[in-house]
Amino acid sequence: MPNPRFYIDFPLGQACVGTSLALPGDVAHHAVRVLRLPLGAPIRLFDGRGGEYRAAIDRIDRHGVGARVDRFDPVDREWAGAPVLALAVIATDPMDAAVRKAVELGAASIVPVVAARSQGAMRGARGTKRLQHWRSIAIAACEQCGRNRVPPIAEPVALDDWLRGIGPANLPGAIAGPGATVSLAGFASRTPPRTVLVGPEGGFTEAEVTLAVARGFVPVHLGARVLRADTAAVAALATLAAVAGDAR
User: If you placed Cys at 174, which of 42, 68, 94, 193 could pair as Cys (CB 3.0 to 4.6 Å)?
Assistant: First the structure.
């Protein structure tokens, strides 16, 4: 079974190799209270800046949990050329699932966009709480899947504003929708998109699709069936990874 992995929210650096460090409270709780790891248990630590550190728990006491850092491993599990996922905000549980799977599948970053048919409030404290929650999900997904760089999740933005500010770095783009005549796989085999845009339940409005096309997006479909928004996000990224040759 793979060694448990934990994200550390401060820079580790080569200087920590050969030393013992105190694990942050949430990490210590998860390691000892949830996973019940004993003294000497091997673990891996990463700080989101690339690579990971092989370590072992060397202290469990009333003051906390410590880990001895043995060595740095520069392993890279990122997808070269991974696309940005621009995902219309949807209901809480499906959105959480889509964020988690997008991170597992290698999305370079995630942009929550507020479309005409988006669900869930994204203003004020509620919106801030949702964004923080998605970022926590991204960290947990990295711990699970082996990524050592946590993909950024942008501040939610109105779809129209985001499309009007789109630049060459995000193009070409693909916008998923059941009415398209070109498959995502077919499009990606010729022109790998740098951004894939997935709509909310109910899809994008005609005006939103028109604006996306005007800004450099190509309408694509994901097959003969109509998919839920969270399923479409997963299917799109999995398709692009497969076309790219498993992202390596």
Answer: 193
